[in-house]
Design a protein that fits this description.
Blueprint lengths: L1 E6 L2 E6 L11 E6 L5 E7 L5 E3 L9 H21 L4
Parallel strand pairs: 2-3
Antiparallel strand pairs: 1-2, 3-4, 4-5
């Protein structure tokens, strides 16, 4: 299973599979234990490495994790627009 979402031009994939399948630069909502143990939010770096954005915190549903990912994207874009230019 893999579902695709887009938020503010960023790709978000909801998957029951591994984060290794996701393209660099994307966000992933990954099932833990097939979803029975929760859902994790990850970001895939340029070299394909996955960073767990929730730390020790996991979400009960994929929908909750998706909303968290969207909030993170909004925060990232807001901080990019307020960063001083060089």
């Amino acid at each position: 299973m893999k579902r695709y979402h887009s938020h503010q031009g960023r790709d978000i994939f909801v998957t029951a599979g591994s984060a290794r399948e996701l393209p660099p630069g994307s966000f992933g909502i990954c099932a833990i234990g097939g979803g029975a143990e929760g859902w994790a939010v990850v970001h895939i770096g340029p070299e394909g490495d996955a960073a767990d954005l929730g730390g020790e915190y996991y979400f009960a549903t994929a929908e909750e994790a998706l909303e968290f990912a969207k909030e993170l994207i909004d925060l990232m874009l807001a901080s990019d627009s307020t960063a001083p230019s060089a």
